[in-house]
């Protein structure tokens, strides 16, 4: 809970700064880069959260990793939060920045989960359906989960449509457990 609150506040302040400086879009790309590094390298996140490693060492590593990849404003911001001992929240701040960016730009993320992936025709149909239900711009994110067996799950914001085979099987299991029939003696 604490990390989320800190990340939200720092992301909001960075959004305000980037809008003021006129580098809002560039900062969003920088935050996507940071999220990508944090997601692909768990050891990097552990390194940032280590209380044993000194701030100057962390700054040196951050500088080396992101050299030439981030804008000057983002680089200065990372230096600032590292000096304030908030680098442990860097991944959360970057993710929250992206969430707040999407909210500010009115961009919705539709997550489609299938067992085998979807083809272009299905992707186009899903986009039409989701766009028809909202006035916002929609970004489609695809996930593959073999556990749903077949069908699909679409999640947009806090709404979800679950038309997976796994859900139908679980529903049948619950129905059979209820056993509405009465035994005759």
In brief:
It contains 8 helices and 4 strands, in the order H-H-H-H-H-H-E-H-E-E-E-H. It has helices at residues 2-21, 24-40, 42-49, 55-65, 72-83, 90-105, 120-132, 165-178, and strands spanning 107-114, 137-144, 151-156, 159-164. It has a 4-stranded mixed sheet.
Give an overview of the whole structure.
By secondary structure, this protein is α+β, with helices and mostly antiparallel strands. The protein folds into 2 domains: 2-103, Orthogonal Bundle (Peroxidase, domain 1); 107-178, 2-Layer Sandwich (Dihydrodipicolinate Reductase, domain 2). Helices cover 60% and strands 15% of the residues. The protein has helices spanning 2-21, 24-40, 42-49, 55-65, 72-83, 90-105, 120-132, 165-178, and strands spanning 107-114, 137-144, 151-156, 159-164. The chain has a 4-stranded mixed β-sheet with strand order 2-1-3-4. Helix 7 links the parallel strand 1 (107-114) and strand 2 (137-144). The protein is elongated and about 80 Å long.
């Amino acid at each position: 809970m604490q990390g989320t609150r800190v990340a939200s506040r720092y992301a909001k302040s960075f959004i305000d700064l980037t809008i003021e400086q006129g580098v809002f879009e560039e900062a969003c790309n920088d935050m996507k880069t940071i999220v990508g590094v944090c997601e692909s390298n768990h050891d990097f996140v552990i390194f940032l959260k280590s209380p044993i490693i000194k701030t100057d060492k962390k700054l040196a590593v951050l500088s080396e990793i992101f050299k030439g990849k981030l804008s000057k404003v983002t680089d200065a911001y990372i230096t600032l939060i590292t000096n304030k001992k908030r680098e442990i929240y860097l991944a959360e701040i970057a993710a929250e920045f992206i969430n707040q960016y999407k909210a500010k730009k009115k961009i919705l993320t539709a997550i489609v989960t299938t067992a085998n992936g979807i083809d272009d025709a299905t992707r186009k149909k899903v986009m039409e359906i989701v766009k028809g239900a909202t006035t916002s711009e929609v970004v489609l994110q695809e996930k593959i989960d073999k556990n749903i067996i077949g069908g699909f799950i679409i999640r947009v914001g806090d709404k979800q449509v679950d038309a997976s085979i796994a859900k139908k099987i679980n529903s049948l299991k619950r129905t059979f457990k209820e056993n509405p029939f009465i035994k005759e003696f």
